[in-house]
Structures are given as C-alpha cells and as structure tokens.
Amino acid sequence: MFTLFRRVFFAVLLLSASHNLLANNADAQPSLAELSQQLISANYKEKAALAEQVALAEDDQAIVILQALLDSRLYYVKSNGQLLLVDSSGEPDSAQDAFTLQAVTGLGKRDIKKIGVNNSLRVALRSLISRAQISSKHKSQRMAAAQNLLKSSDDIDRAFIDQALARETDNSVAEVLHLVRALMQLKADQTEERIEGLTALDGALYPEVRAGLSEFIRSFSDEEKLSRKNEYQLAQTTLTDIEKLVSINGYIENLYFGLALGAVLLLAAIGLAITFGVMGVINMAHGEMIMLGAYTTYVVQLLMPEHIGLSLVVAVPAAFLVSGLVGVLIERSVIRHLYGRPLETLLATFGISLILQQAVRSIFSPLNREVATPDWMAGTFMINPALELTWNRLYIIIFSLMVLAVLALVLKRTLFGLQMRAVTMNRPMASSMGIKTGWVDALTFGLGSGIAGIAGVALSQLTNVGPNLGQAYIIDSFMVVVFGGVGNLWGTLVGAMTLGVANKIFEPLAGAVLAKIMVLVFIILFIQKRPRGLFALKGRAVDNG
To answer: pLDDT grade, residue 58 (50/70/90)?
Structure first.
C-alpha cells in the first residue's frame, strides 16, 4: 500500500515538474510586443528575422505591425521606445499606439523616429504578410495577399501555392494564384512545366506578368534561342499578345478621359450656346463665370469642413445662384446697351473678365486653392489589371448629362423656355405678344452664366481653383458651340464629346499643344463647309449673320 502511494506521489510530482517546465519555456518565448520592440535597434538582416517571428505570432495585430513597417509608417518615441503607427504624412498628430490603437498626443517631429526598411526587407515583408493573409476569411485580404505574391514569390515554395489554391473558393483570387504558380513554373527545370506556365500566362494583364515574361525571354542565350526555339517563340508570342491587349486598354482609357473632358466642355459650353444663340452676345467673361462657380465650391467647403461630401452637393445650387446673379447683373448693367454691336460686347465682356479676375485675386489671393474631393468620388475602379478608371470623372460625365437633360426639359416644358425660344425665333413678334424681351434676355444670360458656375463645381474636382481657371476653357467652349451649331443643345453635346475625345486621342500621338492646333485646324476647315455647324438653328443670331 505504501509502495503504491509512493508511486502515485512521484507521478504527480513528475507531472507538476513537466507542467512548470513547459510553462517556463512558453514564458521564455518573446511576446509580439517584445519582438516588435527589438525592431528599433536591429539592423536590416536582424529585422528580417524578427519579422518572420512576428508573422508567426497568432495575433491579428502582427499583420498590422508588418504592414506598417512595409509602408514606412512604423515609428517609435525616442524617449521611451513606444511603438507608433503614423499616417503617410509622417505628422505626429496622427500617431497611434501600435498595439492599443489609441491616439498619442503631445509629440513633435523631433520626438519620434521612423523604423527604416530597405528593398530586400520590403520583399520579405510582402511575402510574410501574404503568408499570413492568404488564409484569411475575408476575400479582400486574400486578394491583397495573392497580388503581393504576384509581385514577389521568391521566398514561397510551390507546395504553399498549391495548398492555397486547393483551399480557395473565390475565382478571382484563384486566378491570381494560378498566375503566381505559372510565374514560378517559368523557373522550373522541366520544359513541359515551363511551357505549361507560358500557356497559363496567356492574356494576363498584370504588369508583374509582363515583367516576368520579359525577364524569361532575356534569360535565353543565343544557343538556347535555337535549341529551345518553340519555347522561346511561345514566350515572345505570349508577351506580344499581352502587350496588344494593354495597348487596346490604353485606347479605352484615352476614350474615357476624352469623354470626361467632353463632359466638362459640355457644361462650360451649354451656357455659352444659350447666350450666343439667343442673344447674339460674344461673352468673353463666360470663363469667369466658371471660375466663380469653382470659388463658390471652395467657400462652401470652408463653411462645411466636417461634411465634405455634403458640401459638394450644396455647392451645385450655390454656384448656380452666384454665377447666375452675376450674369444678370452684367446683362442689366452693360450688355443690354450693346445689343447689335458684337465687337463692342466682345470688348466690354473682355474688360469685365479682367475686373472679375482681379477681384478674385484681391479677395482670395493669386494662389491656387485646393478643393477636397469627397470619399465617394475619390479613388479608382478596376475594369481589369491594365485598366483602372477614376470615379470623379465618371460622376462628372453622369452629372453633365443630367444637367443637359434638366436644361432641355426647362426649355421645352416651361413658360420661360417657351418665351426664350419665341425671342430666339422672332424678337419683334414675341414683343408684340406681350413677352418682356428685356427680362427674357437677362434671365437667359443668367441661366447661361449659372450653368457655367456648375461647370466650375465639376472642374474643382479635377484641378486646383485659381483666378485663371476659366481662361483655359473659354476658347474650347467657343469651338464647341461653333462646331455643334449655335444655340443647339444636341449640337453642343455632340461637339463637346467629339472635341474632348479628339483631344485625348491626338495628345499621345502629337503632344498636347499640337493636338489642340490640329483640332483648331479641323474646326476651321469644317466651318468653311458648314458655317452653321453640325446642327443649324434658326434664330436672331444666325439670321443677323
């Protein structure tokens, strides 16, 4: 009995000792915080080893630390070694504790220092982050991991990619992983594997694929080009086919940018088409109406700094009213005395444009002002890996078409539109019917100026706001009006989109300046054949011509 008790006692003692030993070993393993802290004083080689240990930590914060290190956003406080996450600006105001993510305040630029990385460490970090993310439950993280592996898969073995492919359920992520596998196959010893990899890469538009194929082709010696002729030709054919697809996507991108430019020209030219078509006034201050709309957007954002997205919506009617009221004031004070004298209206409105420019310089200074882009307009959307388009241009295209549709309804379905068309067709008859032609002129000029102000809102999302903003578009707007047909909305739409696309197509071929000259020469030759433009409109301005 005593012997049995002694055996049980020693067994319990042995189990307790083993448990304590395991616990001590576990305690001996450095924590994520301790590993991360060592990054401060480590050299680049030691940092790579530490990053591998950080990646093995079963903690979501490990990926955050590694990503911050990769993006050069990992800093530390010089006085106490506290690790910080800082945004890309490097400003201490954005500092957060790397582990609690709590804001850290009261620090200056001299109080913190960035933990440096070099190119080889960046490659290793991408690989480590990809390893950790490739098994994530979130598709976006798995896609980011697969794309990182596409950029650098040197430290990854084929078995890891095969395992990831076997687990992957999303086709888009699996497609990228297949490309990673195919690039790895190009380095295989067997010819069959290399050919299989080349076949899998056919039609892939990722730049990393093109780079990998180019490197593979360069690796052939003169003797290998003959001995491995089929393989060499297949690689060249695959790369040529991909470059053709990339070129096609480049044309599509230029077309998109051309449509966006056409949308801006449409907004800028609609108002000019109305005033020129109805009133016969050559308004050289029309560009300044665009400028006033852009500055109105800037002021509205200053008044609503916490609601940038909403401020842009508020700026649309505000810019219309500001530019429209200035337009009415110009018509009532100057232009109504100069009807029938186009040269004098041209000189008068040119003088007004100089006055407005100087007024803006005096109020806002000559420096350009930046207007913030709302989150819902920022960024790009990807059609394919070789074609990414910006959201802001898409919204501007849609917005310009909406403005055109609303204006068409106003002109066709409202009393004001009916009176304006009556004055356009026959001013004496309209006056004899009781229409106040003077106020129709004023409101028409205000409407055209207001739409120019809306164009300024759109332009503020594409470029900085400055006193000379409108001058860059006034000549193009006149060309649109003349080309499309004076006073014709549909002609203005066709003319704006045609000239916008033509500019963007010619620019890569001939340069920006020569492209504009080519478009101008085309317009001059076209007007020689069709003086009234694409869509002729009968009216006072045309008949008087």
So the answer is: low
- Evaluate whether 540 touches 427 at the Cβ level (below 8 Å): yes
- Spatial separation of the C-alpha atoms in residues 301 and 487, rounded to whole Å: 34
pTM, whole model, 2 decimals? 0.73
Determine phi and psi for 82, rounding to 5 degrees.
-65, 130
Model confidence pLDDT, tens digit, residues 464-494: 898 988 887 888 888 888 887 766 778 888 8
Report the chain's mean pLDDT, rounded to a whole number: 82
Match 């337009």 to its residue by tokens.
Answer: 327
Contact assessment for residue 320 and residue 453, using Cβ atoms and an 8 Å cutoff: yes
Phi-psi region of 90 (alpha: psi -120 to 50; beta: other; left: phi over 0): left
As given in the structure block, the two tokens for residue 480 are 């649109």
Q: Report the DSSP beta bridge partners of residue 103.
A: 96
Local structure of 340: helix, strand or coil: coil
Q: Which residue has the tokens 């492919």?
A: 165
417 contacts 247 by C-beta, under 8 angstroms: no
Q: Is the dihedral of CA 442, 448, 454, 456 positive or negative?
A: negative
pLDDT-derived band at 154 (thresholds 50, 70, 90) equals: low
75, exposed or middle or buried, with CB in 10 Å at 0-12, 13-18, 19+?
buried
Give 17: exposed, middle or buried? Use CB within 10 Å, 0-12, 13-18, 19+. Answer: exposed
Nearest-10 Cα torsion for 201, 203, 208, 211: 80
Give the H/E segment covering residue 114: strand 112-114
Cβ-Cβ contacts under 8 Å for 512 (sequence gap 6 or more): none
- The residues pairing with 482 across neighbouring beta strands, listed in sequence order, are none
Residue 240, classified by CB atoms within 10 Å of its CB into exposed (0-12), middle (13-18) or buried (19+), is exposed
- Contact of 320 with 451, CB cutoff 8 Å: yes
The pLDDT of 42-54, averaged and rounded, is 83
Radius of gyration of the chain (CA): 33
Closest CA to 117 of 150, 62, 73, 170: 73
Question: What residues are paired with 75 via a beta bridge?
Answer: 84, 114
CA distance 399 to 251: 24
Do residues 484 and 495 touch, judged by C-beta distance below 8 A? Answer: yes
Whether 445 contacts 335, CB under 8 Å: yes
3-state helix, strand and coil shares in percent for the chain, rounded to the nearest 5: 70, 5, 25
Q: Is the pLDDT of residue 136 over 80?
A: no
Handedness of CA 445, 448, 454, 460 (dihedral sign): negative
3-state secondary structure of 38: helix
DSSP state of 30: P
pLDDT in tens, 176-194: 889 989 988 888 888 888 8
Strand 96-97: give its sheet, edge to edge. 96-97, 83-85, 74-77, 112-114
Token duo for residue 225? 């080009």
Query: Where do runs of H (alpha helix) occur along 388-511?
Result: 391-413, 415-425, 427-432, 437-459, 471-484, 489-510
